[in-house]
Amino acid sequence: MSTCDPSLRSRLVPSFKPSDNATESSASKHLIETLGLQKHPEGGYFIETDRDQLRVPNPFKDRDAADSTRCASTTIYYLLTPASPKGSFHRNKGRTVHTLHKGRGRYVIIHADDVKPGQKARVEKFVVGQDIGAGERLQWIVEGGKYKASYLLPDVEGGSEIAGLLISETVVPGFEFSDHDFMPRERLPELVDQEQSEELNWLLLDA
């Protein structure tokens, strides 16, 4: 049983093993080439498709920071494939609106921005996919300050066919790498209990 979700009969484990030497299928290669995707530092592939020209005040500006504005929003395509099936734990300062195009995946959200003194962070997980009757999501929002990770699932529960998980992400205000960070390895056991940390450890970068 999962320590993060008692309703799951088994622990959260990868459906596909990521590999630096894995070869993409012809279908994945075609999609990557057609959309002009490139490898993402967190895993998977992406391309920025829009960067709003409107500039807004930077809500994350430090007192001495020079970057006083942000573009109003940015949008990317993001793809997970069987050869690159994991998006490692990271967080953005801005909120991110996700929209599903095709495929299935599981998201794990650690609410690091909402931890009460003496308590651990809430861990949320859900499946994104087309089966809305089974609770799968077509759209989901992750507010700033929360760590998120994702991994690829078969197109059908218990099946073996994989189309890859293709989504769009819109960040508000627009994404900048200075507003982004990966979860340090020592941070996970600080946020969640030991059993949950052991179950989720593989979702850290380079795990």
Walk me through this protein's architecture.
This protein is mainly β. Helix content is 10%, strand content 35%. The chain contains three helices and 13 strands; from the N terminus they run αβββββββββββββαα. It has a six-stranded antiparallel β-sheet, with no helix packed on it. The protein has a five-stranded antiparallel β-sheet with strand order 9-8-11-6-13, with no helix packed on it. Strand 1 and strand 2 (45-51) form a beta hairpin. It is globular, with a radius of gyration of 17 Å. The two termini are 22 Å apart. The model has no long low-confidence stretch (mean pLDDT 91).
Topology:
Layout: H1 26-35, E1 38-39, E2 45-51, E3 55-57, E4 69-71, E5 74-80, E6 86-92, E7 95-102, E8 104-110, E9 123-128, E10 139-142, E11 147-153, E12 165-172, E13 180-182, H2 188-191, H3 194-200
Antiparallel strand pairs: 1-2, 2-5, 3-4, 5-12, 6-11, 6-13, 7-10, 7-12, 8-9, 8-11
- Name the overall outline: globular
Strand order of the largest sheet: 1-2-5-12-7-10
Give the N-to-C terminal Cα separation.
22 Å
Number of helices: 3
Radius of gyration: 17 Å
- Count the beta strands: 13
Key features of this structure:
35% strand; 207 residues; single chain; six-stranded antiparallel beta sheet; mainly beta; 10% helix
Brief synopsis:
By secondary structure, the chain is mainly beta. Helices cover 10% and strands 35% of the residues. It has helices at residues 26-35, 188-191, 194-200; strands at residues 38-39, 45-51, 55-57, 69-71, 74-80, 86-92, 95-102, 104-110, 123-128, 139-142, 147-153, 165-172, 180-182.
